[in-house]
Amino acid sequence: MARTGRRGTALPLGLVLPATGLLVLALGYPLVRQVFLSMQEFGLAQQFGQPPEWVGLKNYSEMVGDPYLWKVVLRTVLFCFVNAGLTFLLGLGLAVLMKRMTSWVRIATQCGLLLAWAMPVVAVMIVWQFAFDTEYGVVNWLLTRLGGDFQGHSWLIEPLSFYAVATLVVVWMSVPFVAFTLYAALTQVPDDVLEAAEIDGAGAWQRFRHVVLPSIRPVLLVVLLLQVIWDLRVFTQIYTLQRAGGVSRDTNLLGTYIYTLGIKGGDFGTAAAAAMFMLALTVVLTAPYVRMMLKQEEEQ
Amino acid sequence: MARRTSRPVRLFADVVGILVLLGCLFPVYWMVSRSFLPRNKIRNPEPTWFPFGGTNDNYGRVFGGGTFGDALMTSLSVTLLTVLVALLFAFLAAVAVSRFRFRGRKSFILTLLLIQMIPAEGLFISQYKMLEGMSLLNSVLGLTLVYVAAVLPFTVWTLRGFVDGVPRELEEAAMMDGCSRLQAFFRVTLPLLAPGLVATGVFGFIQAWNEFTLALVVMTDPAKETLPVWLVGFSESRSRGVDWGAIMASSTLITIPVIVFFLIVQRRMVSGLTAGAVKG
């Protein structure tokens, strides 16, 4: 088992050192620095080399007083919950069905899912943009064929249909992970317990509700929370659709808002404050997950 | 024994499976097939479903622009450097975590898990300012630094699982036969870890190759763009009418390495994902 002694502690610490050092430099230091950035003001003068001015909590108080921020936050949380919920339900449904498929169909489906999962986000976005293109898109063609009036319909101008397209793409890309993970968990549910429940007269839904769901509960929770975290920070999808569609003020989520403020607008102070806000939101939403992990590590 | 599935249920499951498969393949098919279509056929209101007798013009226009090559070089260097550094650092850390009990081990593991929850969008402003201060904006080194930090937690985690999987008794047996501890590790354990290193490396490759957000923030100079950033710029650079053919061709080109790597380790990735879930 564990080797102790002087050599035994110096060596493992040395092995961990490179990884730790890099993480401290690339994540730890920026995190600390962001706190300071968020209390500085960057304006036109700073673009010409003036050092930024200390303003204390002014960026925060201005931001909190700005109704636009709250709109963006509300949108972000809504978008996140809708997408995470849809992805979760579709992934769970698919995982349950995968257990019932003929084996070659299952393998083929899994290969397709992996492909969707591995494809570069940008390439995926571009193909879907083309599919929803106003003039040459196959979606408009199909809907017109089915009797709708979709000739020359622009999907990205209206915020609601903009988000519908974004949701379609995000869900399309995220279902594979959920389906795979939950399928793996489902294969771990012992068959004899299910058979015993069946003999006791439990119907399919009752077996699912009272035997299957409780036994995969830990994995369900982890997958759902991961999905929430990931959908809270969608950036690429929104950014590329905005570039293609043109309306960004009505469609900004937190990520694109921070980007517009800081990198494009040069207002690093306010952008950093908004980013701190986003981190806080992440902490609030993930607190239950963190508590679970801490417990698991303790038990080991 | 596997449980029986009744025939209507199996039929329903199979139909859904095939529909999902088609839903996954359609965008890929659409992308690749459009990339071989001449312009007038892409811009036909009636879509061409089965393009035969295609053209290579679209690919010609991608390479003809001259900027594709630069982006390819940037992407390749950043991705390979990220994979190498991440694998090396993660390998050392994974060995430490798996083979030793030391003070701070638990907090190291927990920190790794916590880091995975930090959204890139929550830190990219200060990372940008940091790289600006270090004169590392628009440099392969700067982007690699933030990429390695992004993939390290997962990489350490996965490799740790693989190191755990090699029984320590094998090393001990080699030491009985007169190997030193180090020799035993390099001759016995390391070769057994090769598949794990490959699978983890491929994961890092795909992550770094596909990444968009940080590259957009860090590589602001058009000459230094990675392929995904270049592609988004390219897709809007035409002032009169979008050149969908060339855009589909470049999307296909960016996807090819991913698919090749994916085919190589596809089976291992399925089992890796499965194992990860069970350990959850």
UniProtKB/TrEMBL annotation, chain A:
SUPFAM superfamilies: MetI-like. It is found in: Cell membrane. Gene3D superfamilies: MetI-like. One of its GO terms (cellular component) is plasma membrane. Residues 73-289 form the ABC transmembrane type-1 domain. The chain crosses the membrane at residues 12-32, 72-98, 110-131, 160-186, 211-230, 268-290. GO terms for biological process: transmembrane transport. Pfam families: BPD_transp_1. It is a multi-pass membrane protein. Keywords: Cell membrane, Membrane, Transmembrane, Transmembrane helix, Transport. Belongs to the binding-protein-dependent transport system permease family. This is N,N'-diacetylchitobiose transport system permease protein.
UniProtKB/TrEMBL annotation, chain B:
It comes from the Bacteria. One of its GO terms (biological process) is transmembrane transport. Gene3D superfamilies: MetI-like. Belongs to the binding-protein-dependent transport system permease family. It is a multi-pass membrane protein. The chain crosses the membrane at residues 12-32, 71-96, 108-128, 140-163, 184-209, 244-265. Pfam families: BPD_transp_1. GO terms for cellular component: plasma membrane. Keywords: Cell membrane, Membrane, Transmembrane, Transmembrane helix, Transport. SUPFAM superfamilies: MetI-like. This is N,N'-diacetylchitobiose transport system permease protein. Its main location: membrane. PROSITE patterns: ABC_TM1 (PS50928). InterPro entries: BP-dep_ABC_trans_perm (IPR050901), MetI-like (IPR000515), MetI-like_sf (IPR035906). PANTHER family: INNER MEMBRANE ABC TRANSPORTER PERMEASE PROTEIN YCJP (PTHR32243:SF18), MALTOSE TRANSPORT SYSTEM PERMEASE-RELATED (PTHR32243). It is found in: Cell membrane.
